[in-house]
Design a protein that fits this description.
MetI-like fold, 13 helices, mainly alpha
Length: 334
């Protein structure tokens, strides 16, 4: 890898993050309205009356949050804050900082998303590889219709089915939440087991849907690979079927799968948000949903910024290591 290519990809990385964060800033303000006034009116309605001096309170809070300045000045301050990972206070949870809320929610989503992505990618890739290999058991061919059927179902819809069957009808797993009500988070086996039980159904909803897509793409690549000359030549040399399957077919079919992993990451995160909402899982998805309902500009911007940054970093790393996965690819000028 040349230095010029690395700098070019690094510049593209920052450009993508800047464009995405800019859209993130203006998109939250397209709906109009005053988020501070909406929040104060909502709290006043809960009390059964409208508080006196509402306009003065709105003006004071707008000055506190910097919402009374021109839009371009808000944008400049927004970019400066993003560089320092300073997302201001949460409007709906004042005086709690946005970064504190994200720090509490991010580990839940990271653990759920990382586990389900790895499991679905590995299991789906292996199933697709065996289904696309002509010498594999014919029984595996019957797995494709149910896998494709599950892949056509949205994450949240399958999650609702799982809740009804395994939580409501059979009472095998908890209905919702990240841990039992009244339990205080701690580093213990009992709490870890409680968290695991609550995460089974959300994880299962994501894994069952994702496996079908990974299996289908891997099967297609295996079928294509099987017709390549190097596989035919390896077979003619008398190499063992296991060697041809692992070292010649899977190794080359795995490259597009690795590329697709970064491309579908954004879609996977979007699906995970809805899964967390229906399961009331204490992750980024539920926090984002509540922030949007409460018109919490700064919390929405902070969460989306982290999601953008995570997807951009994953794509950037994959772009850098791809030549090492496939030596045939080079970024040197010929």
């Amino acid at each position: 890898m040349t230095l010029s290519y690395f700098l070019k990809r690094l510049g593209m990385f920052f450009l993508v993050v800047w464009l995405a964060t800019t859209v993130n800033f203006f998109l939250a303000r397209l709906g109009g309205g005053d988020p501070v006034e909406q929040q104060l009116m909502r709290q006043a309605a809960l009390g059964g009356s409208v508080q006196a001096g509402m306009e003065d309170m709105v003006e004071e809070y707008n000055e506190k949050f910097g919402l009374n300045t021109p839009l371009w000045e808000q944008y400049v301050n927004y970019l400066k804050d993003m560089l320092r990972f300073d997302f201001n206070y949460s409007i709906a949870n004042y005086p709690v900082l946005v970064i504190d809320i994200i720090e509490r929610s991010l580990p839940w989503t990271f653990g759920l998303l990382l586990t389900t992505t790895i499991f679905s990618w590995i299991i789906g890739g292996l199933l697709g590889a065996f289904m696309g290999w002509p010498r594999s058991p014919k029984l595996l061919e019957y797995l494709m219709p149910p896998l494709l059927s599950l892949n056509a179902i949205p994450f949240f819809l399958l999650g609702l089915v799982l809740i009804y069957v395994f939580a409501f009808r059979f009472d095998w797993f908890p209905l919702s939440g990240g841990y039992s009500v009244g339990t205080f988070p701690e580093y213990s086996l009992a709490f870890a087991w409680d968290v695991l039980q609550h995460s089974v159904l959300p994880a299962l909803a994501i894994i069952l849907v994702s496996i079908g897509g990974w299996a289908l793409t891997m099967r297609s690549m295996m079928v294509t690979t099987y017709g390549e000359d190097y596989v035919t030549f390896a077979d003619a040399k008398g190499l063992k079927d296991r060697t041809i399957f692992v070292r010649y077919s899977i190794r080359n079919a795995l490259l597009p799968q690795t590329t697709a992993l970064a491309l579908v990451l954004g879609q996977l995160i979007a699906g995970t948000v809805l899964v967390e909402v229906i399961f009331s899982y204490p992750g980024i998805g539920t926090t984002l949903y509540n922030a949007i309902r409460g018109s919490d500009y700064f919390l929405v911007q902070g969460i989306i910024f982290f999601l953008i940054l995570g997807i951009a970093i994953a794509t950037f790393i994959l772009d850098l290591i791809y030549p090492y996965l496939d030596p045939r690819i080079t970024y040197r000028k010929s």
